[in-house]
Each structure stands twice: as structure tokens, then as C-alpha cells.
Design a protein that fits this description.
Blueprint (H helix, E strand, L loop, with lengths): L1 E12 L2 E13 L4 E5 L6 H8 L7 E6 L2 E2 L5 H10 E5 L10 H11 L4 H14 L15 H13 L5 E5 L7 H18 L2 E6 L2 H7 L2 E6 L2 E7 H6 L4 H11 L4 H11 L4 E8 L4 H11 L2 E13 L2 E12 L1 H12 L4 E7 L1
Parallel strand pairs: 3-8, 3-9, 6-7, 7-8
Antiparallel strand pairs: 1-2, 1-4, 4-5, 9-10, 11-13, 11-14, 12-13
Helix pairs in contact: 3-4, 3-5, 4-5, 5-6
The structure holds adenosine-5'-diphosphate.
GO biological process, one term: amino acid transport
Protein name: Methionine ABC transporter ATP-binding protein
GO molecular function: ATP binding; ATP hydrolysis activity
Length: 341
Amino acid sequence: MITIKKARKIYPSKKGEVKAVDDVNLEVKEGEIFGVIGYSGAGKSTLIRMLNGLEIPTSGSVIVAGREVSKIKGAELRKARQEISMIFQHFNLLWSRTVADNIAFPLEIAGVPKAERDKRVKELISLVGLDGRGDAYPSQLSGGQKQRVGIARALANNPKVLLGDEATSALDPQTTDQILDLLVDINKRLGLTIVLITHEMHVIRKICHRVAVMEGGRIVETGHVLDVFKNPQQPITKRFVQQVTEPEETKETVDHLLDRYPHGRVIQLTFVGEGVEQPLITNLIRKFEITVTIVQGKISQTQNGSYGILFIHLDGEEEELDNAITFIGQHEVGVEVISNG
Ligand code: ADP
């Protein structure tokens, strides 16, 4: 659905030039939910704006739904934009128009007759869960409801690709989850390809199939979300993964555990998938003459399976402890020894 080849965007700046997007290659398949994550200034907005022709690359090509959007202009570009729609962090609604009129707006521009427009708006209002709110004005809605209007409006012309520019960054965590659930629902029901840019790994983990990590205008790592979580390669990716896997109290926990367990080893296990940890721990107890205690743990359920982080205390003879840790290392889990008592 999307192919980006050797895309670059260079802006002039006082110091010479800024490579906002630097030699980016990317493929997004039809029906995929693809995430692009990076800190502020990484080049995400520039990249996503290239997908709907709002930004023309300095070099390289951007092909979306069979059209080279980096080369088209005028009426052809307007047509392409109906197929590649976007939702925004601050919703970009028309404040003087009702919910129904906001959603109808792109249909009006496309010249859809009134009767058909009304029917379509009704369907869209229902699809995004805003039944009964068609006559409300944006100022009368909550943030989550405003984004539902943004989504309905973006879907009005049956796009092939939906782009999200930090679409949940202005929302509280609970509302974020509801909006992400809605996007998954739409992706499943309509088979719509979705590309989201975000600086929040939570968003990636909850709904994306694949992810690209951006830093300094480049994509430094790409992969299936589960693989990236299991085995992040780049330091920046590790930091993003820690954003969601480390409980907030981890640092305190570590200090606390070092005090509590002066002997033996405290290890941290990180794993993805259902029922990974239990057989491993059972085997440890069976195979080695050690005591095993789970001292703290957190397992969270996500769209892609479960993700867990456990602190475990092992105690016994030195040699047995070393063998046990080697044994754990042979399994598909992340293991980090945090105390060598
Ligand atoms: P992100 O969305 O990841 O925060 P951006 O794509 O907005 O990153 O910006 C990438 C880099 O390009 C930044 O250094 C930013 O200052 C620069 N940049 C973005 N847009 C422009 C512009 N129109 N003119 C000059 N520099 C820009």
C-alpha cells in the first residue's frame, strides 16, 4: 500500500541545512497498522506529511495506493488526498459547525449529493460511537469525542490509508485506550491501512503490527512489534521498550531488592507470550538445588499477547546459581542479573 524509496527532506537552516528525513526506505502492507516512533525532532511529522503530499521530498519517491504522491499536483493530488486521510493531535475540527456538518465537509468538497451525504454521515456517526451527538458542536464534546469526529470525518470518503499524527497525545490514558480500540475495530472492519506516528510506545504496543523507530531523520530499526519488544537492537529502541515494560517503581524496587536479598541473585525476567514464565520457573526448581522466589511481577495483556516483567530471587550454592542463570539464558526470555549477592 505504501512504498517509500530513498526519501530525503532537507530544510535550509541558519546553520546550513536540516536533514528532517534522511534516506528513508519503508514498505507498509495493505491492512497493516504501522507505527513510527521517535522523540521530538526525529522527522516523524515530515515523513507522514510526505505520505499525503503535504510535503514534497527533496529526493526519492513516495508511492501510496499506486500513486506517486511525490510527483502529482492539482486535481490529481486532491483526489489522492481523499484516499489518504489524516487525523490530528488537536483534532482540527471546524468549531462553528456541528458534528454532522464536520463529518459531511469532505463529502461536500467531493461533490456528494445532499441525500447521500446525510446517509453516509449517519453511518459514520454510528461507526465511531457518537449516535445522538450529530447536532452537538465540538466545544460541547470531550477530547475523546472530538477525536471520534476527526476519525469519522477522515473516513468519510472511504480512504485506503488513514494517517494519525500523534492522534492520542492530547488524551488521557483511558480515552487513549478507547480511541485505539476504535482504530483497531475500524482496521478490522474496513481492512483499512493505518500509519500512526507517536512518541508513546504504549500506542505501538497496543495496536501496531509493525513499527519503525526514527532518530535524526533516519529509520534505525524496523520490525514486528513483538520481535522489537523481545529483542530491541538499538539503544533508543531499548529506551522506548522500557517506557512501557518497566513498572514506574522499578528503580525503587531494584534498590529495595538489593537491600532485601543480600545473598543469592536477584534477576529480572522480561518475556512476551502466554504462559512463558511458569514452566521456566518449575524447571528451575526441578533441575537445580536452589530456592526460587518471585518477589515482584507485572504481566500486562496487549493486542499482541501478554508482556511480563518479573523479579526473581534465587538462592543456593554459587555453582548451582550460575548454572541456573545459564539455563534461563537458553530460553526465549530477557534476563538481567541485578544483584550478585
Ligand atoms: P518530529 O515530528 O519527529 O518531531 P519533524 O518532522 O517535525 O520531527 O522535524 C524534523 C526536523 O526537521 C526538526 O529538526 C525540525 O526542526 C525540522 N523541520 C521540520 N519542519 C521544518 C520546516 N518547515 N523548516 C525547517 N525545518 C523544519
